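Q: Entry one of two.
A:
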Amino acid sequence: MAQQIPVSPQARADDPRADAERGDHTHAVASDLAYRRLVLANVVFVGEPDAGDRGWVLVDAGIPGSAPAIRDAAEARFGRDARPAAIVLTHGHFDHVGVLEDLARDWDAPVFAHALERPYLDGSASYPPPDPSVGGGLMARLSPLYPTSPVDVSERLQTFPADGSVPPMPGWRWIHTPGHSPGHVSFWREADGSLIVGDAFVTTAQESAYAVATQAPEIHGPPMYLTTEWDAAASSVRTLAVLKPERVIAGHGRPLAGPDMRRGLDALARDFERVAVPESGRYVEKPARAEDGSAYRAP
């Protein structure tokens, strides 16, 4: 049975006291790196406080209805009317692009994503249906209700360069980490060991409503109900573990840092098939892949 890997609370990478003093509704992880939790998922802000107009980047675009919260946090952190240089995406699931169309339009911002994720972002393809049979818990059982239809930001959509660079984020590179979705990517800054992983792995048991509410720190495989290629997901986690990151921000759960986090990530990489992969399920038996087109459906 799939299971989480507990991590000591001392591995938390944010400082609630400093966050409260700053009052911009975000949680700092490094001087130029912060996140905001939006009920189900996190968005990440890359840029120094008070960076001003076009001086920062938004990673992922929240759940439906979260635009006011994202705008308020951005204004408080970067300054009034401060628009991002770009919105970059780990992937296009509904809880990561919930207000993408609105924010990209209102901020007149380019959107960057992996080529294999483009069909979900230009209106041409829907994701495969969720699998409510995996993971147990309320969040998994409710997954058939989650939207899988595409958004359309085709006028602003750009593909990440093949050289691994992230044009609006100097010093960072993107790493293809498929499994949870075909074009899922993570972002790595070698200079200080910062890693933004989206849903390649998460730091809460996202299938469980209780775990989502309590946010107890743990290392966990990608959310099961939307993961469509388990062999690729395992390979992606092992690719990220080799980096030996200093700090990690996932799409779900609290950011983690330090030796205890790395031990947990190493354990997930080593035992992925035992601790992360469901015993059975729609995509355990028959993965949905980009190569044969089964990862894309008519919208």
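Q: Entry two of two.
A:
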Amino acid sequence: MPSRTWAPPAPYDLACTLRVLRRGSGDPTCRLEDDGTWWRTTLTPAGPATLKIIDKTGPAASRRITGEAWGPGADWVLERLPALLGAHDDPAAFVPRHYVVAVAHRKHAGLRLAATGLVMESLIPTVLEQRVTTGSARDAWRRLLRLHGEQPPGPAPAGMLIPPSPSTWRRVPSWEWHRAGVDRARATAILHACTRAPRLEEAAAMPLTAAMARLQFIPGVGPWTAAETLQRTLGAPDALTLGDLHLPVQVGYALTGRRDGTDEQMVELLAPYAGQRHRAARLILLGGRMPNRRAHRAPHSRIAHL
């Protein structure tokens, strides 16, 4: 069992950093134990791997985070463990320009942007989230993995699974997509992506603009899906989500008190954070100053994000 230890900067919040990688509490690929231990299963270029992340919390000077890994992809995930934990992220480059952002920045000073280095791992569940509720997308993810996921190597907790390979996704029968609540448009987008998986994985080594263009070459993958994917793949601080039903309203309300935010208004409001717009938006969400959603009714056309 190979392992690797990383000394995080201070302050550092492991849960806040990794939470974005988990698709709900029942995600078969990502689990948080009561003692703060994280488990991840993944399909790397070297093969499947199970990763256990242990936070040995102590004084700032002695705190250590240890990763233990099993499977053919164990060395691959351990080599990239610091990046996964946000070691390559530079929060010092962020300067708050609004009071509510500054408050959230202080409260969540330990946030780092995780980078998995894997595209398909994030792209497929993100496509499942298009045009549906979060609960429906997570149910579909769990159902499809129970049918087509593989047993992980090592001592992974019961119920955890390795995500299917692109070739396995391509063999999923149409009726299983339907039973999982996945419409033809989303299923087709996933199949198109799996056909071009090697080219898409190259985006993990590209600058953000080029990576966004590479992902949007796939029919059914638009700016919303590309940004949500690359936030996790690259840990990209400027990968702002456009086309979302709620985010422009939440950002607009937090910064102006208005409840009628649009993408255009959000981009204008976040212009002072150029290069760090995703981080700014995420801090706003963590800040918790949200409008009452029942009081807001967005135009139906804004629901169809891709």
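A: Comment on entry two: Confidence is low (pLDDT under 50) at residues 295-304. The chain is about 40% helix and 10% strand.
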